[in-house]
Amino acid sequence: MKLQNLNIIIADDHPLFRNALRQALNNAFQGTNWFEADSADALQQVLDDKAADLDLILLDLQMPGSHGYSTLIHLRGHYPDIPVVVISAHEDVQTISRAIHYGSSGFIPKSASMDTLKEALDAVLYGDIWLPEGTEILEVDDDPTSQMASKLSDLTPQQYRVLQMFAEGLLNKQIAYDFGVSEATIKAHATAIFRKLGVRNRTQAVIALQQLEMEKVDLS
Q1: Under CATH, which number does the domain 7-125 receive?
Q2: 214 pLDDT band (50/70/90 cuts)?
Q3: What CATH topology corresponds to 144-216?
Q4: What is the pTM (predicted TM-score) of this model?
């Protein structure tokens, strides 16, 4: 692959970080088209329009609408041909191990130098997995968190967005208005979400989603 004229999304809710990252990488990846997203919903909007042309997604695990690993899991389930690199301030081996287990093509600490960042993206764009030097990935058990991750990956993009809105506390009529559809359509989505997640109602669905928050992960 010739590493120029790429299409890359920077998904992070900090505008200063997105700007610094884009400027630092412009010279390394000439002619790159940069797309930015400051939330999980904004990321989905870019994907709806540009997915077929994207070469890479740089993903922060903690931005509005994301619940820990949920956005990563969703991306790997529905856009398997687009490599995702997690860029995170959480640099512990547990977080890195989960990210790789859920399909990330690399993990770059936000504390990394720009030279390291370029090295990492070079590796991923050539098809390799990149990890911080000296990282030893832990085995991730088939625990309730992993089981829920598998169920979450079965949701369609629209169902995933409805579930995110449930987590925000929005009512069916509010979600229907945002989607431009009827309340009956949202109720149908809800029924499908509950069935796929193995839950009975909205509250249980939101609790299930919250299992993927990073602070609730324990590999010990």
Answers
A1: 3.40.50.2300
A2: low
A3: Arc Repressor Mutant, subunit A (1.10.10)
A4: 0.81
